[in-house]
Amino acid sequence: MGTDLGLTTLPFYVPGSAMELRAVFLVGFMASGKSSVGQELARRWDWDFVDLDTRVEWRERQTIPEIFRERGEPGFRFAETSALGDLLTESLKRNTVVALGGGAFVQERNRELLRPWPSVFLEAPADELWQRSLTDGVERPLRGDPEQFARLYAERLPFYRQASVTVVTSGKDLASLCAEIERRLQFRGRTEAAGRSQIPPTHFGTGESQ
Ligand code: S3P
Fold first, then answer.
1. Fewer CB in 10 Å around end: N or C, the chain?
2. Residue nearest to atom 8 of ligand 1 (CA)
């Protein structure tokens, strides 16, 4: 049925070239698996993978904890939006899966920039994410104690829910999660991923959780 629609985004033209590119953005709270899922989707589709936090660090020549220490959260958000803007206007070279940082989709300006593109919210309960965040070895300036973590999660949830598609991750392995994302995005597979889409962006995703 819907499977013949293909993964659809606005055609995207890199300034100065005639190349048309597609991208999918992964959204979700800290430790929700955006990078692992993004890398696996990119491998399955033969797309590039970009981690926005890594782009921020590369552009600023500083680690994220250093940026937070020196410039606070407003300084980090400014750098994050600049990196996202650059990515969308200059540095996408091939079809790309992008993992956003946990607060990126909460910022209105970033959601505006991302409006033409499909976004996938990786949803899991705050207590599960807290447990994962203790063991994944990532230093996160905005991870305080479990109560603060749960409060921040609750504040952000309405924004995450604005993603094109929501996928619940709990109890699922990487392969079934990726297969579910492909189904929800009506992705036609590797060959189609390399081709061009003429289908308008309104034809993908439902925003509903399954
Ligand atoms: C942040 C999450 C981090 C990173 C920064 C801010 C947040 O990314 O962008 O520390 O506001 O939740 P991860 O979601 O990859 O941990």
1. N
2. 101
Contact 38, 97 (CB under 8 A): yes
Question: Which of 5-9, 68-72, 205-209 ranks highest by mean pLDDT?
Answer: 68-72
* Nearest residue by C-alpha to atom 12 in ligand 1: 102
29 C-alpha to ligand 1 centroid (Å): 8
For residue 192, the CA-to-ligand 1 centroid distance in Å is: 32
Chain segment 68-122, per-residue pLDDT in tens: 999 999 999 999 999 999 999 877 878 999 999 999 999 999 999 999 889 999 9
Of 142, 155, 169, the one to substitute when testing ligand 1's pocket (max ligand atoms within 8 A of C-beta) is: 142
CA atoms 194, 196, 202, 203: torsion sign = negative
* Residue environment code for 106-128, b if the CB has 16+ CB neighbours within 10 A, otherwise e: bbeebbebbeebbbbbbbbebee
What phi-psi label fits residue 158: left (phi over 0), alpha (psi between -120 and 50 degrees) or beta? alpha
The CA 101 to ligand 1 mean position distance, Å, reads 4
Atom of ligand 1 nearest to the CA of 140: 10
How far is the centre of ligand 1, averaged over its atoms, from the C-alpha of 119 (Å)?
17
Rounded to whole angstroms, how far apart are CA atoms 77 and 195? 34
Pairing of strands 12-13, 20-21: antiparallel
